[in-house]
Amino acid sequence: MPDRSTIRILIIDDDLEFADVLRMHLTAAGYAAEVAEDGIEGGKAVLANPPALVLCDISMPFLNGLELFSLMQADAKSASIPVVFVSGRSDSNIMARAVELGAADFLMKPITREQLLQTVETCLQAGGRKAAPPNYGFPPVV
Question: Which phi and psi angles does 35 have, rounded to 5°?
Answer without folding.
Answer: -120, 135
